[in-house]
Amino acid sequence: MFYMRLKRFMGRPDVRQNPVQALLKRLWWRIWWSVTDKPYVIPFAENLKISVSKSGSASLIYYQGFSELDTADFIRRFLRPGMVFLDVGAHIGEYTLLAAQSVGASGEVHGFEPQANLFPILSENVEMNSLNNVILNCSAVSNQVGEIEFEVFNEPSVSSIRKHTTVSQNAKLVRVACTSLNTYWSNQPRKIDLIKVDVEGAEKLVFEGAEELMSLPSSEAPTWLFEYSPDAYACFGYQPSDLLELLKRHNYQVWQYCGAGKIADFNPAAPVTQIINLIAAKDKTYLLCLLQSESIPVTPEYAQA
């Protein structure tokens, strides 16, 4: 057990780059939370600030800049000024802030976070950076509208809509507001360019509540960046193939992001030993143009849209 933890630690990008600084940061992180529970404000991205809470994902933001480096890289490469981004499972807002900076004043970012202890921190982070292009929603996202049961853990990053399995003894069960993306975006004139979904296994419920958006033609349908975790899916009573088939039914293709603007075909039969993020899009050429160019690509199809 110790060997595996040490191996994971030594594999962290910030540890490989500067082991001494990485150790000192982790020491300071422990000291801070041993004397206070007040969120800690740190520099973030380019000329932004972020207030981090005591959670696993927040600690990674402090240690290495982002909780998931490839996710941040993808969002930065994909988004352009004027685009629309939806952050489903916004947590404290690291990708909400990053996206708001990328899409600029002419773009829009819509964040969704149902946890009562996190939403004030998310709101503070948006206000602290004077981001007027962000709309926040204290709401879960699923395939229904109204209220839904939600499991809250001491570790906020693993809290989720109530699973089909027995509620954990370590979780507090609460009711939170809930919407579907079909309902939320109904009658909106703008196109959604990218939706990030990180909801601890409830991904299929989010997609089921967005089938109207998914059925749009390729020039209008959103691209998706979503968490793929067979174990988490099983807790909600479905298989990975169920989610992938739903995407295929709406003419989406699925890839894994490799970093540096590169994608790879995803093999659903290959064993998944850790949680990964997948990309679903309808136009591979347009996707690669966005990821690998500095300007917005315009194809005849998109020029007519």
What's the quick description here?
The protein has 305 residues and is α/β, with parallel strands linked by helices.
SSE diagram, text form:
Blueprint: H1 2-11, H2 13-17, H3 19-35, E1 40-44, E2 48-52, H4 56-64, H5 69-78, E3 84-88, H6 94-103, E4 108-112, H7 119-128, E5 134-137, E6 140-141, E7 146-152, E8 160-161, E9 172-179, H8 181-184, E10 194-197, H9 203-208, H10 211-214, E11 223-228, H11 230-235, H12 240-249, E12 253-259, E13 262-265, E14 276-281, H13 284-292, H14 300-304
Parallel strand pairs: 3-4, 3-10, 4-5, 6-9, 10-11
Antiparallel strand pairs: 1-2, 7-8, 7-9, 11-14, 12-13, 12-14
Task: Give the count of structural domains.
Answer: 1
Question: Which architecture name does CATH use?
Answer: 3-Layer(aba) Sandwich
Q: Sketch the major β-sheet.
A: 8 strands, mixed
How large is the radius of gyration?
19 Å
Counting helices, strands and paired strands, the structural category is alpha/beta
N to C succession of SSEs: HHHEEHHEHEHEEEEEHEHHEHHEEEHH
Helical stretch tally: 14
Shape: globular
Give the spatial strand order of the biggest sheet.
5-4-3-10-11-14-12-13
| Percent strand | 15-25%
- What is the multimeric organization of the chains shown? single chain
Q: Mean pLDDT, nearest integer? A: 89
Q: Can you tell me the CATH topology?
A: Rossmann fold
First and last CA, distance: 54 Å
Instruction: Kindly state the percentage of residues in helix.
Output: 25-40%
CATH class reads Alpha Beta
